[in-house]
Amino acid sequence: MIASPLPDLVGRRRECAALDDLLVGLREGGARVLVIRGEAGIGKSVLLEYVAARASRMKVTWAHGIEADMELPYASLHQLCTPFLDELDTLPEPQREALRVAFGMAAGDPPDRFLVGLAVLTLLTRASETRPVLVLVDDAQWLDQVSLQTLEFVARRLLAEAVVMAFAVRDPEGQSALSGLPTLRLDGLDAAAAGELLEATVGGRLEKRVRDRFVAEMHGNPLALLEFSRGRSAAELAYGLDASGQPGVQGPVASRVERDFAGRLAALPAATRTLLLIAAAEPVGDARLLVRAAAALEIVPYAAPAKAAGLIEFGESVRFRHPLVRSAVYHGAEPEERRAVHRALAEATDPVLDPDRRAWHAAQAAAGPDEEVAAGLERAADRARQRGGIAAEAVLLERAAEITPDPGQRGRRALAAAEAHFSAAAPDRATELATVAELCPLSTLDRARLARLRARILFARSRSDEAAPLLLEAAAQFTAAGSPLARETYLEAISATIFAGRVHGPTGARAAAIAARKSGAPPSGSEAADLLLDGVAALLTDGYETGVPALRAALDLLAHEELGTREATMRWLLLVPVALEAFIHYAWDLHAWDTLSSRAVRLARDIGALGALPPALIYAGGVHIHYGDFAEAARMIDEADALAAATGHAPHQYATLVLAAWRGEADVAAGIIEEARQRAEERGEVSLLGASGYIQGVLFNGLARYEEALEAAREGVEHDGFNFTGLSLVEHVEAATRCGELDQARASLARLLELTRAADSGWAHGAAARSRALLTEGDEADRLYRSAIEEFGRGGVTVEVARTHLLYGEWLRRDGRRALAREHLRTAHGMFDGMRAHAFAERARRELLATGEHVRVRENKPLSALTPQESQVATLAADGMTNAKIGAELFISPHTVEWHLRKVYTKLGINSRRALPGALANTPAVALDDEETARTA
Question: Radius of gyration (Cα) for the chain, nearest Å?
C-alpha cells in the first residue's frame, strides 16, 4: 500500500511505541519479530513504513504479497533476499546450492524448504554483521506459500542475530499465517482520533453529529475515513454517503471501500482503465512489461488520470494505492476483457527468461480447452517441483487439468495435481482433484496411484485401520501393472497397520503381510526395501523363528546401501521406521537400532530434510535412553520437539514418555499420557495405547507401585499391537511377581520366552534370563541373575544392567546375603543416580538402607543447569566443532551458537572451550526456559 501522506500517524501512539521498542531491543542485543494483524485499511502498511523510516543506519529489505491466483515458488523470498545475494558464496555449500536451486539460479534436486530456510537465516545473519537488518513483509497472507513457510521458519529460529522481522497480515484472510509469533493487533481508531483524521482531510469543519455518524459508519478504519472523505467537502458529507451518490454503507468496511474505488474507475478514460487492468493482472509490477502489453493491445499507456485520482503510482515498478484498488480493477472487468489482457501479457513475457509466468497468462487467456497451453502449464509445474515449490506445482497442474481437452490427459493431470496438493499439506483440495481424476479414464497404473493417494489422505486424517485395505488394493493394482511401486506400497500398508495398532484381524498387519507374500510383486528397485518387506512379512506370517533371520538379512543393506539421489535418500528415510520397529521389538537389537537411527539422523541432516529429522532424532534418543545416557537422550528429544514446532509438525511423544518413565517423573508422564490417549482415540492411532502399557509399567515399577504397574503392563500385554508387546511382558512379569500374581507372571514369561527365542541378542537373552529369575529360587535364580547382567551388558542395554543389579540385590537381601546384596545395590544406585533415573535410584537407596548402609541423596543444582539447546551447543563445541558447523547441525545461526556459548560459560564458571569437556561431565540438562520456548513453539 502507498503510505499515507499525513506526517503523523493519528491515534497510533501505542502501536508506534511498540515498533520503536523493536528497534531499541535490537540495539540492546538479540533479534526481534512482530506480526501486525488487522482488517484491510486498518493501517498495517503505514506502520511498516513508519518503522522503515525510523530504521536509521539499518539495512532494510521488503517483500510485498500480492493477491493473485498465480503461485510462483520462492518469488517473494527471492525479492526479499536480492539485496544480500552478494553474500551467497559465503554460505556453506548445501545451503548455497539449496538457495540457488530455489531461486532458479542453478539446476539440481528439489531442495528441502527448511534447508532453504536455514540458508536464508545464514544469509541474513551474514548481512547483519556490518549493519543490523530490518526485514519488512507486507500483506504476508498473499506471499507464495513456500516463501511464507520459509520466512516463518526463519522467524522462529532467530535469537541472537542483529535482525528484526516485521510482518503485516490481513485478517480474516491470513488468520492461520504466522500463528504463535509475537503479535500486535490493530483495531479501528477511537472516536477522537478518527474524528481528528477525518477533519484533517475535509475542507471545512464538520458538525459533531455528522462527524460522529461518519466515524461510526467507518468503524474507525483509517483507509475508509480517508477514501470516503477524499475530495468531498464538509457540506457534502453532511448529507450522508447515499445522498452524495456514493455506495450504501451496508456490509464490511473493506467491501464499501472497494466499491468506492470501483466508482472512481468508471470516470477514467477507457485506455486508462485497460492500463490499470494490465497492472492488476500482472502481480510483479514490471512497468516495462506493462508498456509492452499495452502495445500488444494497441493502446497508449495513458496513466495520468489514474495517478491524479490517487489510485496507482508508476516508476520502475507499478504500485496500486491499496490492494483493494487492484481487486476493484480486476474483478470489475468483464471476463473477455481479463482474457484479452492476459493474452497480451503472455505475448509480452519473454518465453526464455520467464516461461512460467508466460504459461500462466496464456492459461488465464484461454476461453476453453487448449492442449498447447495445458502442456505449457505442466512444464511450468515440473520446473516448480524442481525448485521445491510443491504448492506452486499443485496450482499449475490444477489449472492445466481444467483446460485439458482430452479426458484421459485431464485425469492424469488432475491426479498429479491431487498428489501435489497432498504433498503441500492441502488434503481437502487433494480430495477434490482426486474426485475429478476418478471421473476420467485412467490407466491401470494411474488407478493404482489414485487408490494409494486416497488411502494416504485417509491415514493422514485419522490413523485408523481403514487405510490399510485401500493401500493393499493400490498395491495389488501396482502389481497388476508390473510397477516397482507395488512392494513399496505393501510395505506402506504394513506400516499403516503397525501405527493403527493391530496385528490380527482382516485389517491387521498379518493380513497385509499375507497379501504381500501372495502378490508376486516385482522388485522395487531397492534391494534393501525388498529384503525389509520379505523380513517383516515373514515375521508376521511365518513366526519369529523364520522372520527374525530374514529381517537380519536386510540390516547390512539398510545400513550401507548407496543412496545416489535425494529422492533415494527420502525413500530410505520413509521406510526406516518400519525397520526400526521390527529390529527393536522382535530382534531386540539395540546395536541395529543405534546403527539405523544414527544413519537416519545423519542423512536427514545431510540433505536438510527437516520433516524427517525429528522422528530420526526421536529414535536416536530412544537408543541413548537404553544406553543410560539420559542427558543426551533429552538433548535429542528437545531438538526434535523444537524442529517439529518450527516446521509446523506435532511433537513426537513416545520418547518423551519413555524418558519420563525411566526418570520416575510420574506427574510429567501422567499429563502427557492422558493427552496422548485422547489424541490416539480421536485419530485411531491405538498403537500408542499399547505403548502406554510399557511406559507406565516402567514408571510404576520404578516407583515400587506394583499394583498400578501390573494393571498398566497387562494393558500393554493384551493389546494386539506390533510393537511394545515384548517390553510390556518384561514389566508385567516383574509387577506380577511383586504382587503375588504368579500365574499371571508365568503366563507372561511363557510368551516372552517364545518372543525372544529367535532373537540371538544380549537384550533378548537378558530379558528372558531375568524374568525367569524372578520366578525361580536358589542357585538357579542366582545363575539367571548373573547371566542377565552379562547378557544385558553384551547387548549394551545399560538401563537394564542397572535394573538387574537392583533386582538381584533385592533378591540377595531377602535371601539373607546382605554383604553381596550391598555390592549389587551400590552398583545399581550409582548407575541410576548417574543417569538421573530418580525413582529406581530411590528404590535402590531404600534397599541399601534396609541392609544397614547409609546413602547420601544427590543435591540438585538447578541454577547451574543448562537448557537443552545450551547442552546441545556445548556438547558439539566440546567435540571441537566450529560455530558455523554447530549452526548447520542444529539449524541455527553462528551468532545464536555464540550467544548460547556465552551463557554456558557463565553457568559453568569457565571462560573457554578447552574447559567444556570437564565442566559438562556433571551438568544436567533441564526443560526449555521461557525464552527458548517462545522462540521454538
Answer: 33
Q: Which cell goes with 199?
A: 477533519
Classify residue 600 as left (phi > 0), alpha (psi -120 to 50) or beta: alpha
Query: Can you tell me the distance from the alpha carbon of 745 to that of 740, in angstroms, rounded to the nearest whole number?
Result: 9
Sign (positive/negative) of CA torsion 238, 239, 245, 248?
A: positive
> Beta 59-64 vs 133-138: how paired, if at all?
parallel
Residue 116 three-state SS:
helix
Sign of CA dihedral 379, 380, 381, 385: positive
Amino acid identity, position 371: E
Contact 549, 543 (CB under 8 A): no
pLDDT digits (tens, 9 = 90+) for 134-154: 999 999 999 988 899 899 989
Q: How does residue 308 score in pLDDT terms, banded at 50, 70 and 90?
A: confident
DSSP assignment string, 659-726: HHHHHT-HHHHHHHHHHHHHHHHHHT-THHHHHHHHHHHHHHHHTT-HHHHHHHHHHHHHS--SSSHH
The verdict on whether omega for the bond into residue 172 sits within 30 degrees of 0, i.e. cis, is: yes
Q: Residues 213-272: pLDDT tens digits?
A: 778 888 888 988 888 777 666 666 665 544 334 444 445 677 778 888 888 888 899 999
Give residue for cell 529381517: 551
The DSSP output letter for 188 is: P
Decide: pTM greater than 0.85: no
What's the pLDDT tens digit per position in 584-643? 999 999 999 999 999 999 998 877 777 788 899 999 999 999 999 998 898 899 888 877
Contact, 509 vs 503, CB < 8 A?
Answer: yes
Contact call for residues 249 and 217 (beta carbons, < 8 A):
yes
Angle between helices 444-461 and 427-438 (to 10 degrees): 150
- DSSP string covering 405-461: -SHHHHHHHHHHHHHHHHHTT-HHHHHHHHHHHHTS---HHHHHHHHHHHHHHHHHH
Q: Is 251 left (phi over 0), alpha (psi -120 to 50) or beta?
A: left
E strand or H helix that includes residue 134: strand 133-138
Strand 312-314 to strand 318-320: parallel, antiparallel, or no bridges (unpaired)?
antiparallel
Q: φ and ψ at 165, to 5 degrees?
A: -120, 125
**pLDDT band at 770, cuts 50/70/90?**
very high
Separation between Cα atoms, residue 337 and residue 289, nearest integer Å: 18
Residue range 114-141: mean pLDDT, rounded: 92
Q: Residues 41-60: pLDDT tens digits?
A: 999 999 999 999 999 889 99
Give the 3-state secondary structure percentages of the chain, helix then strand then coil, rounded to 5: 70, 5, 30
DSSP 60: E
**Which are the contacts of 687, defined by CB distance < 8 A and separation ≥ 6?**
498, 499, 500, 501, 680, 721, 722, 723, 724
SS3 36: strand
